[in-house]
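Hi everyone, sorry if this is the wrong subforum. Our group has a chain we'd like a structural model of before ordering constructs, and none of us has done structure prediction before. Sequence below.
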Amino acid sequence: MLKDFVKEQKPEDEEMKTSLKEERAALSALQMKIKESKLPVMVIFEGWGAAGKGSVLGKIIKNIDPRFFRVSTMDKAPSEEEKRRPFLCRYLVEIPEAGKFQFFDTCWMEEVTQGVFSGNLSDEEYKERIHSINTIERQLTDNGYLIVKFFFHISRKEQKKRLAELKEGENTSWRVGEEDLWQNEHYSHCEEVFDKYLTDTNRSAAPWYIIDAKDKKWAELQILRYLNQAIDTALKNHSLAVPILQNTFRLKHQPLLKDIKLNKSVSDERYKKDLKKLQDELQDLHNEIYHKKIPVIIAYEGWDAAGKGGNIKRITEALDPRGYVVNPIASPEPHEKARFYLWRFWNRLPKTGHIAIFDRTWYGRVMVERLEGFCSENDWQRAYNEINEFEKELSDWGAVVIKFWVQIDSDTQLARFTDRQNTPEKQWKITDEDWRNREKWDLYEVAINEMIQKTSTNFAPWYVLESVDKKYARIKALKIVIKRLREACDQYDARH
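Answer:
Right subforum, don't worry. Here is the predicted structure as tokens:
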């Protein structure tokens, strides 16, 4: 893209002045339409060192109410803490709420290309990063985000001149780093790497705009024009349905809920004996996965009163409290509802060597949100593939993803609801919403079956816990967790 870049004719001074005034006013007017339509806008500035990203960004945001935008500067290498989470995490936590702008002074491009320059990123790792970036950008745009990406382009000669001027200035010399000087010295090599990255991540839903950045006013005008056009198009497309993608993941066949036998049980004596043995084993494994820096995600879904809480408790009893967290997931808060639905789960992922347990999960999209009308049919139909992609990203990062569906029958639920309602110390566990959901049992069963069938993959299969006998379900869950963690540790040993 850079090598084929043809500069647009720069306007004369008077025309430039008039056009800038018009485009600035247009952006100022469009921000209110963005707010009204709840369109979230990500604007990404990338480019050569000393190309003027910061100064032009400062001019662009002057046209927007400061209550409706934020700027994220992502040019620093990830911290040791950030390196212990998936590559995309530190960027995704910065995405905007609906109706607002988020400007990125460099985003994921910087980290990837620096990894190539330093030799820390292999060809295979580069391809994986590109796939992750293209996938998340597509997911965001499918879910209503506008992503506008600009690359500030200057010649080697122009960059050298600007770096020299900055170095000579008493108040600007600090802005010239070793990376900038190295970049200019190896301009041709950097251009090749940048060009490849831009080509590899140039998609119709989130295209790259190459900006002739030699003149700052001209750069500003180009960006305003492209940005205003992109916003105008996005506002027209905002309410349109998005195509449902074909599944590309190998799925594991799962029985329908009605075909699962629920008469499984364990004696009290066997339960006590197995519980202690399995918890001791899990305790040892927790130390091992911490040492080997293997992240673990355990996701619980199930019928109300199925016994998720007690099941989780028997797992956490065996764990070092410093190495796990339980995330109880309720209805999204306003600031969560205003973002991509997976955002709040990206924010709760564990560090390497830690365990995150989710009491309810991202699968609310294809159950509660589907049945209660909190999202459109197009939204929840797309979500199966988006969730599979999310879990594949976690698996590729090295996480063990374990998903439990806690299964009971309708009569068992009724008995447990009645017991909760009639026992004072348990009444906090039962709500009117639980009874309303119970009336939709058949509809939920259809949705759950579809969810399990479409999202039980090789890397993140579903495990059904027969929980009419809660003790049986607890022992089964412990055995599955231990098996999966042992496999992960064995795979680690084989690689090292």
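For your construct planning: The chain has a mean pLDDT of 96. Residues 154 and 213 are 6 Å apart (CA to CA).
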